[in-house]
Each structure stands twice: as structure tokens, then as C-alpha cells.
Amino acid sequence: MAKLIYDETGRLLFTEEMKKEYTLLMPQMLPVHFSMMQRCLELHGYQVDMLTTNHRAIVDTGLKYVHNDTCYPALLVIGQLIEAVQSGKYDPHKVGLLITQTGGGCRASNYIHLLRKALARAGLEYIPVVSVNLSGLDKNPGFRLSLSLIRQLIFSMMYGDLIVQIANQCRPYEVDPGATDALIETWINRLVSGFEAGKGLKFSAMVQNFDAIAADFKALPQAGEPKIRVGVVGEIYIKYAPLGNNNLEAFLLSEGAEPVVPGLTDFIIFKIYNRDVDVDLYGGKWIKQKVVRIFKRYVEKCQHAMIAAIERSGFRAPEPFESLHQRVKGYLGDGNKMGEGWLLTAEMLELIHSGTNNIVCTQPFGCLPNHVVGKGMIRRLKDDYPTSNIVAIDYDPGATKINQENRIKLMLANAKRNPGHFAPAAPVETVPQKKSVAV
Q1: In terms of Cα–Cα distance, which of 238, 183, 192, 189 is closest to 213?
Q2: Average pLDDT of 326-331?
Q3: For residues 8 and 4, what is the distance between their CA atoms, to the nearest angstrom?
């Protein structure tokens, strides 16, 4: 058994010996993206098991070991990890817990400390916690983000965004039920096999794969009238994770709608851009800003290539990050960057301008910045775009699924009464009012 080693602060380290013996448990957020990322980690010698559990015991475990004033996403992630350890499926002395850490002002940066505290309360303090971040936080000798692994993770994010964007446009209209999901699995296996063989990590190869993926999905037999499109925005975990949003996308499909979910790439560029903004707002080293801008340009280059491939294939393509940034001007400034910050409002504006006027804004308990830039901006957006149809749905341990679904059904009923629900919403033109003159 691997020897437990602690750093000078008393933090349990994930060692090289543990890398050989331990299985890392990884919460799922985006099924397609994280499936590829899991496989990438395995290519680099890590044993990884992605948790796809989805039941009430996860919430109950989170409530037991996490303070009930903590945000709902933290409660779910920590509850899922500890419930998995306690399930009997794993040897608790041979597992580590893998969790992302943004390094920003969001409580997500503190999930890792909340998780360690919860493990101690559960008598599992001997389980190492591994942070995945690009900020140099919580380093471990047995876990390292090498340049090749970072490239694979970036490419996985791009492939995942492209696949999800076009798959969501195919699944509601597929002639053969399950054909879209089967093709997704085929391409995940093909892309990861390319990584393993040392292929597909050049920009030109990625562009070729983009076109090949889009062509395969375009060839899927489709039929039926256009369905009502419903955008999904909100706090990043609740927006994407089936566990967090009670399988929202599946519910929308069952109601005859076409889900439209913004990609992960915009959020990653947003987080990179925030490091640039920090230097302008608060000062800092110019070299940091230069490195950040180089990294941002590289990810944006990949995003532009992805968008171009979607457009060439005839599918609806998302807007690039810089377009979202321009759309939000006049609504929120660059300094509004906690949680999803101005990006959440920008995503709603993008959806409205692209003809997806019906939007579900997922609002988890305890995420105040999300409520400000989500629910707090709905009235302003409706004033500017009267045909927009936005509903904020609260997610917390006590919220019932039936109440959430009934509110979404009401939003869909409103959408069906609006014959122009596919038309891009036009802003209201304000007419200057004449000033009254006292007589």
C-alpha cells in the first residue's frame, strides 16, 4: 500500500506511488467532453472512473457532510464523491478524488477545501484530493498537467463542443432512435484512438476531424417539422450536469423541444480573459498578461476553426467569444466576472439574436453572482427584447423536480402561442419623449 505523505501545511499529497495503485474518481459535468477527458487521463497512466450516478442519496450525503449554506453545485459534487466512496464499489484505501479548481472568486475554488473537510467528518481523511487547475494551486507529485495532456484536453473540449452543438440539432429529428448517440460514441472512440496513436494533435488534423464529424452527423436520416428551440444557460455545473439539472435536456426532448446549449469553450476563454482583465484593473506583471493573451489567441483560433466547420456543414453555428463580448457591452462590464459573470448575460443575448428566444436560466442555491447576472438581468432583456421568453428555474436540495418541470412547461406553452419563436428578436426602438412644459 502506498505510504501517506503530507506537505509542510499538513495536506495529504497524491504521490507517484499512488498514481500506480489508486483509482481517481471524477465527477461528471458534460457527458461527451468528460468521457474524452477521462480517456485522455488514462492515456497518461492514470486510472480514472467517471461517476455517472444520479439518485437522491447523493443529495442526502452532501447535506450530511457539507454545510447547508454552501452552494448547491458544491453539495452535489462533494455528495457524489463521498457517496461513491461509501458505496462499497471501491476500496477506500485505493481511491483519490479528482476535482477542478478555477482559482477565481467563486466558491468553486473552495470546493477542494470543503471536500477535504467533508472527508474528515466522514472518517475518510486518508483519501487524497487532486486539484486540476492551470493556476499552480495544490500541486501533487503524482499528478501533472503535461503539455501533451493539456493539448489533448483542449482538443477534447473543442471536439466535445462541436459534437454537442450538432448532435443537439440532430437528436430531435432522427429517424432511427439512438442513431445520434451511437455516432457520438463512435467518434469519441475514434478521436481518443487518434490521441493514443499520436495523431490528431496538429491544428490541421483537428480541422479535418471537424469536417469529418460534421459530415457524418449531416448524413444521419432526419425528418419532422422544426421544433421549438430552447436555450439552456446558467451556473456552469447546473447548466451542463444531468445530476444538477434533473436531466433537463432529456426533459426538453420529451416535451418536443430542441435544446440549445452554449459550449464550454466560451467559458474557458472567459476565464483566461479574466486573467488579462485583472492586470488592467488591479495591476500586475506584463509578462503574465502577454502569456495569457497568447493562450487566449490559441484557444480562440481553435474555436474559429470549429465554428467555420459547423457553418460549412450547414448546421447552425454559435458565435465566437469576441461577438459575445461585444453583445454584452452596455449591459455589464468586464469587472463583473465572478462565477459566470457577464458571460451568462452574453449567452442569453446570443441565443435571442440567433432566434432561440425561449431560454431556461438554471439558478442554483447559494450562487449569488449567478442570480445577479442571470435572474437579475431578465427584466432588462425582456424590456429590450419583448419577444424573449425567459424563465429562471431554481435548483436546490428542497426543490421538487415536478415544480421545475411545470414551470418549464408553462414557458413552452407561451412559446407555442408565439408564431415567431424562430425569428431573431429585434430590440425595442425607444422614441425620445417630449418634455412637458409648465404653463
Answers
A1: 183
A2: 96
A3: 13
Per-residue pLDDT reduced to its tens digit, 61-117 = 999 999 888 889 999 999 999 999 999 999 999 999 998 876 666 666 678 889 999
**In the beta sheet, which residues pair with residue 360?**
232, 391
Q: What pLDDT digit, counting tens, does each position of 153-169 carry?
A: 999 999 999 999 999 99
**Torsion region of 123: left, alpha or beta (phi above 0 gives left; psi -120 to 50 gives alpha):** left
Burial of 147 (0-12, 13-18, 19+ CB in 10 A): exposed
How far, in Å, CA of 394 to CA of 98, rounded?
27
What are the structural domains of the chain?
16-144 (3.40.50), 228-263+318-425 (3.40.50)
SS3 category, 23: strand
pTM of the model: 0.90
Query: How far is 4 from 10, CA to CA, in rounded Å?
Result: 11
Number of H helices, E strands in the chain: 17, 8
The residues, ordered by sequence, that sit 6+ positions from 59 with a Cβ below 8 Å of its Cβ are 75, 76, 79, 397
